[in-house]
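Lecture 7, part B: from sequences to assemblies.

Below are the input chains for today's worked example.
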Amino acid sequence: MATYEELQRMPMSDLRAEFRSGRYIGHTAAMGAGLLQANLAILPEADAIDFFRFCQRNPKPCPLVGVSDTGDPLMRTLGDIDIRTDVPSYNVYRDGELTEQVPDLKDLWRDDLVAFALGCSFTFERALAEAGLPLRHVEQNKIVSMYKTSIPLVPAGKFGGGTVCSMRPFSPENAERAARISRQFPQAHGAPLHIGDPAKIGVSDIDKPDWGDVTEFRSNEIPVFWACGVTPQNALLRARPTLCITHTPGSMLITDVPEDAEVTVLAPAA
Amino acid sequence: MATYEELQRMPMSDLRAEFRSGRYIGHTAAMGAGLLQANLAILPEADAIDFFRFCQRNPKPCPLVGVSDTGDPLMRTLGDIDIRTDVPSYNVYRDGELTEQVPDLKDLWRDDLVAFALGCSFTFERALAEAGLPLRHVEQNKIVSMYKTSIPLVPAGKFGGGTVCSMRPFSPENAERAARISRQFPQAHGAPLHIGDPAKIGVSDIDKPDWGDVTEFRSNEIPVFWACGVTPQNALLRARPTLCITHTPGSMLITDVPEDAEVTVLAPAA
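Predicted structure of the full complex, as structure tokens:
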């Protein structure tokens, strides 16, 4: 059994073999350096076109980076990916209720399922860190603060609800830099949705996040809110599809797509 | 009847009233300054999810900027748009053959139709012009040269084929600037697919475009190839859906979305 530190340093092919075999079922933070990580949502085709529209209409919380053919577990545009096995751990929801947590989907995959991969914040967080912008929750080994907000989503069919934001504290100057850098990653939530005043987006108490840990603010720091991948998770639960399979939070799909790629599609062989 | 020059200067609400009434059925170049223009493809829902996947997988030739609900002619995320009337002229294809050219879809709209809006090159061309990069075909009042290329598309269901590129000549320095500027417009084909050698992308004679006019090259100029909106048009014809409705070439959908917006979706009222 590889240690977490060994997994962090593994080349992607070895790392994927660990996931594929079921030997590792934990989180994927800081693994697969330079590669795009993604949230996963698998739905029956009957719900797929509305969820597709929901993502197209809400590209900041739901940046689509790949969609499988109906019934095909291979997500070829994202690399050598078998979506039945290549995520460390999966959550299975039936009628909106979590019923199982499983290490693979070998027994659950069906001919009518469509898999959606959505970009996640790891991508822009890595870019911020490389630009020398400190991430408090990373420094303190905490989970980023996340909040329900009043920022409306554009509905599509049964999918809708409110936008969930993650929040990171920065000095005003660093907030501007962080906004400029993250805008370059539309596949990973893009620019912040709001900077400065939590009340303006319906957050009444910054010290009471709806998910994650409380964030420590230092003098002169202001909150910077980004659209968060919990948004589509919430929209899925709220819609209560007969079956919905997601990654287990933190345990993401690591793709073969470079995270600074202009488009999140690997070109086919010419 | 407004003149072309009057139409170019009209505010969008008046301009759309001209289109909506059927009084103007011509092209939309240089109209609706600062607003995103789009290619249009309307398909029965049975073909829609595969076309949706086709666009997701080929974002440079097919940058999706809006998708209607099934049967709903109002494209709310793009503004005050009734897709049955708000494009100056429509082409109707049945089983892959052009059968009609009509000024509205009042008699053709059906409950199972889905409308897709795809970004177009007008957006990045305006940005290039504003940056002082001369566009030969605009200066000479010609149609840009377009070529079938060997750059493969990622197929989805019955949709596939090859990438069509438009080509604009620049000095090597201006080519690099044009690449940098256009990369900022993922909703409008993004960065060039190729710069320099037509043979590398399967174009054997630069003086024989497959569509549009021949381009005059001046000393020291090299060809710069961008993915082109003719690509999805071709893929649609090739797939031969029972019904497909597009804009008439040059006669685009002008949206209410600013063409420099980070996302091509107008926020709903909070």
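Note for the exam: Chain A touches chain B through 36 residues (CB under 8 Å). Keep this in mind when comparing with the next example.
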